[in-house]
Amino acid sequence: ADIVTNLPMKDFMKFHSETEGLATISMKTVESHISQYGVVLLDKNRKIYLFLEKPAPMELYLSSMAQRTDLFLHTNIINTGIYCFNKKIGDILHETGLMDFGGELFPYLLENQYDLYGFVKNYYWLDCGNIQTYMWANWDLLRHYAWPITPNGKEYDGIYVMGIINSGQNITIAKPTCFGKFVKLENRVKIKELTSIGSNVTIGEDTVIEKSVIWDEVKIGAGCIITESIICNNCEVGDNVVLERAVIAPNCKISNDRQIRDQTLEVGQQF
């Protein structure tokens, strides 16, 4: 899955058992009241009467007109994509052939008067299916926003480590940051806040890394400046390289003195 969440799963399952509905949908409130999140019509027991994903403005208008005094229209609740079903759902899926839960299955169940419920809580949830939100997810875990989900390893005052860091002289490590196993930092390396370093990574003298994610088996040369970038597995970065909002795919090699800003290197590319 491409989401990070600390959804209280025990409470979610308990709610589903108590309502005895066919399905329960995990939901959470968001600050924005905009149509990209969809709308849901609930009663006070969180039973769902209307469910529209990313509705058009006309659908929003019609849904609001259908409101009853005992129902509540919410335009700031999102479906966070975790579902709990009664075992009868297997027969329904087999009979109908429906596969798209949000676009097909849930509307079908409501039209046929099956009981659906929304588990609505305020918990951490982030879809990290693109580069920007992937970065945010890494930063959020370091900042404990998704507690109790944290980086791997043992925490020492905001710095997570999975093994001993082999470091040279005058090293600076800010917090929060995290490190995998077998990390080597040469003299005067600066690891600034919100940086995640994987395992088997070597970083050369005087290199500065900030708000970046470095995967495993990476070698970074001396004098580099790396900011808000992602370096994937098995990459080699030369000396005096500048990476700014760059994404370096696996097995890439970057020569000395290169600058890459707002750019993505493809798998195995040499630059």
Notes on the structure:
By secondary structure, this protein is an alpha/beta fold. The chain has five helices and 28 strands. It has helices spanning 9-19, 57-65, 89-96, 101-111, 131-142, and strands at 3-5, 23-29, 39-43, 48-52, 71-74, 77-85, 116-121, 125-127, 154-156, 159-161, 165-167, 172-173, 177-179, 183-185, 190-191, 195-197, 201-203, 208-210, 213-214, 218-220, 225-227, 230-231, 236-237, 242-244, 247-248, 253-254, 259-261, 264-265. An eight-stranded mixed beta sheet has the order 9-10-13-16-19-22-25-28. It is elongated, with a radius of gyration of 24 Å. The model has no long low-confidence stretch (mean pLDDT 90). Residues 1-141 form the Nucleotidyl transferase domain.
Summarize this entry quickly.
This protein has helices at residues 9-19, 57-65, 89-96, 101-111, 131-142; strands at residues 3-5, 23-29, 39-43, 48-52, 71-74, 77-85, 116-121, 125-127, 154-156, 159-161, 165-167, 172-173, 177-179, 183-185, 190-191, 195-197, 201-203, 208-210, 213-214, 218-220, 225-227, 230-231, 236-237, 242-244, 247-248, 253-254, 259-261, 264-265.
CATH uppermost class of the largest domain: Alpha Beta
| Biggest sheet record | 8 strands, mixed
User: Measured on Cα atoms, how large is the radius of gyration?
Assistant: 24 Å
| Percentage of residues in strands | 25-35%
Task: Set down the secondary structure blueprint.
Blueprint: E1 3-5, H1 9-19, E2 23-29, E3 39-43, E4 48-52, H2 57-65, E5 71-74, E6 77-85, H3 89-96, H4 101-111, E7 116-121, E8 125-127, H5 131-142, E9 154-156, E10 159-161, E11 165-167, E12 172-173, E13 177-179, E14 183-185, E15 190-191, E16 195-197, E17 201-203, E18 208-210, E19 213-214, E20 218-220, E21 225-227, E22 230-231, E23 236-237, E24 242-244, E25 247-248, E26 253-254, E27 259-261, E28 264-265
Parallel strand pairs: 2-7, 10-13, 11-14, 12-15, 13-16, 14-17, 15-18, 16-19, 17-20, 18-21, 19-22, 20-23, 21-24, 22-25, 23-26, 24-27, 25-28
Antiparallel strand pairs: 1-8, 2-6, 3-4, 3-5, 9-10
